[in-house]
Design a protein that fits this description.
By secondary structure, the chain is mainly alpha-helical. It has one domain (7-114): Four Helix Bundle (Hemerythrin (Met), subunit A), CATH 1.20.120. The protein has four helices and no strands. The longest helix is centred in the middle third of the chain and has 36 residues, at 44-79. It binds zinc ion (ZN). Zinc ion (ZN) is lined by residues 86, 88-89, 91, 106-107, 109-110.
């Protein structure tokens, strides 16, 4: 089924999110640096906290980088006119799903079968 998508709207949303993510990735880099093992200043508990915070920020960074990849793929699909169609089965992705996350590349059933 042919959808009448507001490509301009999605392009703007994706571009904005990309800028936001680039800023976040840069600020997140500082927190993801190796934990200092300065035993004289940092107690065992706070060292654990620091390591936990580091693990979390690495995970966050990994997620953000994954989103950047998806956004770039979505922008590419806007450029080649494939945006809004599922990457796997080529069915139209519901507009509501795209509005919720414009970087979605799969329809609901393909996304579910990938999990
Ligand atoms: Zn699909």
């Amino acid at each position: 089924m042919e959808q009448n998508l507001d490509i301009h709207f999605f392009r703007e949303r994706l571009a904005e999110r990309l800028i936001e993510l680039n800023d976040l990735v840069e600020t997140g880099d500082a927190a993801a640096k190796p934990v200092e093992l300065d035993q004289t200043r940092v107690g065992r508990l706070s060292r654990m906290d620091a390591m936990q915070a580091q693990a979390m920020s690495i995970e966050t960074k990994r997620r953000r980088e994954g989103e950047v990849v998806r956004i770039n793929a979505a922008l590419e699909r806007i450029n080649n006119g494939r945006f809004g169609n599922c990457l796997e089965c080529d069915e139209s992705i519901p507009t509501a799903r795209l509005k919720f996350d414009p970087s979605t590349l799969l329809c609901i059933s393909c996304a579910e079968s990938r999990e």
